[in-house]
Amino acid sequence: MPELTLTIQNKVGLHARPASLFVREASRFQSTITVLHGAKQANAKSILNVLSLGVNQGAQITLRAEGPDAEAALHSLRALVESNFGETE
Prior knowledge:
This protein has three helices and four strands, in the order E-H-E-E-H-E-H. The protein is of the alpha+beta class.
């Protein structure tokens, strides 16, 4: 099962708009995608699950994907996070 660790740089963390974009992107893929933050884990395709992680700026998350497009899903989510969710600040 492929996985990767990312640092959230967005000033509001993985909340509200960034979380919405993250879930929308994850939902494009067939694979099961899990987000881990500390001892918590969440379904990456559920906005409530992702918000419940309480990911703040500077926090590290680990993404795990399992399924036919797991590598593509992780690549796409990495690009979204590294682009700071499309925000310029």
